[in-house]
Q: What sequence folds into this?
């Protein structure tokens, strides 16, 4: 039996998925659809793909079942054949929104994960890493308190934020 990875190895790997410019620290979206649109537009900026295509892909996945996993957290995701590598976008909402979450609680932390079309195992491993990070109550509390992208990025990758 292999030992489970330490929280730091999980966080360090997230640095491969997300960059500081892919973090929206104070989203003003008021609905699930607006949250997804805003995150997909940010993903479009990072990937050069169409924001509309990304949004449609994520929306189709969302129709299969909500990606609101509980405790105010959602991990929407989708696969795009033209995407060369895994890409993440994170948003912290100023006010929680209804996300049809499993626990019926509104969501204020959203990590959008996009994967290449043929990335079965890689996609699942990334989802698992994100879920493990966002199950850590201390990390989640700090993400909710964070006010800027640098601090959020540092928490996700366990790096020291400037001035921290």
A:
């Amino acid at each position: 039996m292999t030992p489970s990875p330490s929280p730091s190895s999980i966080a360090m790997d997230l640095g491969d998925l997300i960059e500081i410019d892919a973090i929206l620290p104070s989203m003003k979206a008021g609905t699930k659809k607006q949250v997804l649109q805003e995150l997909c537009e940010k993903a479009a900026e990072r990937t050069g793909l169409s924001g509309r295509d990304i949004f449609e892909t994520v929306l189709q996945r969302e129709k299969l079942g909500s990606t609101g996993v509980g405790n105010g957290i959602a991990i929407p995701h989708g696969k795009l054949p033209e995407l060369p590598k895994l890409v993440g976008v994170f948003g912290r909402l100023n006010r929680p929104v209804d996300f049809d979450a499993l626990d019926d609680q509104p969501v204020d932390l959203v990590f959008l994960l996009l994967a290449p079309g043929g990335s079965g195992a890689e996609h699942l491993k990334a989802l698992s890493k994100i879920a493990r990070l966002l199950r850590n109550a201390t990390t989640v509390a700090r993400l909710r308190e964070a006010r800027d992208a640098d601090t959020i990025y540092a928490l996700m990758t366990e790096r020291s934020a400037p001035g921290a």
Notes: Helices lie at 7-14, 32-47, 51-64, 120-135, 137-145, 149-157.
